[in-house]
Every structure is written in C-alpha cells, then in structure tokens.
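Lab meeting notes turned into a lecture example. A postdoc, R.K., suggested we walk through two folding results consecutively so the class can see how the record format repeats. The first protein's sequence and structure tokens come next.
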Amino acid sequence: MLPQHRRRARIVFTDSAAKQLENITSEAGIHALDRALVVVSVDPEVGEPIPGSAVGPQLREYADEVERVRLLYWVTALKTVVVVAYLEV
C-alpha cells in the first residue's frame, strides 16, 4: 500500500508581505523563508493562533527558532495560506 500524501497548501502573499520579500537579498534569508513556507504549506495549522476579535480571519504565527523567522498568516476555507508578514528575529 502506498503512503497517503497530503496536498500542500497554496501560499499567497499580501501586498505588504510581497514588499518585504522584495527586500530579501541574502541567500540565507531566502533559505530561511523557504524553510518556514514549506513547514506551513505542509501543515497550515502548525502556527499558534494570535488572540484577537472574532471578526475576520484568525491570524496565526509560526516561529522557526532554528532559522529565527516568524510568519504571520491566516488559512482560508480552501486551505490557502495567506502570508501577512515575514519577520526575521
């Protein structure tokens, strides 16, 4: 029997997150972001919910302590991950 493979979530960026990405110039920065995006695309629920109002999407935060990166995002009903911000810490 073949192992079950889950489909990865599609990743999209808000305009502000896309502008942040344009400013990444180092290969290490691109690698760190790529690693975090892969983790979130495989399991969109991996991030911690950010407390807030019940109106609008539930923001989540994923922190990769190895790469020292944080992603702020929400997950749509169709499991698309919308990245709001990318932060290096």
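The second example is placed directly after the first for contrast:
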Amino acid sequence: MRAGRPVATLLLAMGLAAAVSGCEAVQQASDTANQVGQAADKAQLCIEALKLAGFTPDATDPQKALEETQQKAEELNALAAKAGDATLQDAITGVSDTMSKVTLEDLNPANIATWSQEKLDQVAKLSNACA
C-alpha cells in the first residue's frame, strides 16, 4: 500500500504539470489571438484614418470646404479615441488638429498650398504610425 502512494503522488504531479502546461499553451494562444486582433483593428483604423486624411477641400467654394474639412476632423477625432496605440493616436490627432484649425483664409487660392503642405506633413506621420 505504501508503494502505491509515491506512484499516486508522481501521477498527480505529472497531471498538474500537464495542466499547467496546457494553461500556458492556452494563454499563449489567447495572447497571439489578441495580438492578431489588435493588428487587424489597427489596420482597419489606419485605413479609415488615411481615407479621411486624404480629403482635399474644394477651394472654389471656401465656406463649404471649411465645413467639410472640419467635419472630417471630427471624424478623425472619433477614430483617434479608438486607437489603443499612443503613436497612432497622436498621428491621427495631428491630422485632425491641422484640419480642424483650417480657416477661410487658409483655403483661399493664395494660401491653400501652404495649408495643404502642413496637412501632408501630418499625413506622412500618420502613414509612418500605420506602418
């Protein structure tokens, strides 16, 4: 009877080790799935942000262009709030800030190139954050 006790203890220890290994494998699989999910979320967020950031206002109707640009900025702010990655969030916010601060003066034909370059610089940062 005493000889059975060490065998039972050994079997119990082996069972516990297998259970712990199984839990670790499940945790690793869960971590990997979360990383894949986060990458997919980031990719989708980047696609949407870059699409909004690519908006070019129509300078022939400055008031409408101002309103549309500010609307796109609001949509970008909403996306920034969803970003879990601080670098991505900052990049989206940078584009949003540039777009929300646009004025009618920025959109007149003499100044639109300067404002557009500022926006393009922010879009480049966004593209890098998405890479």
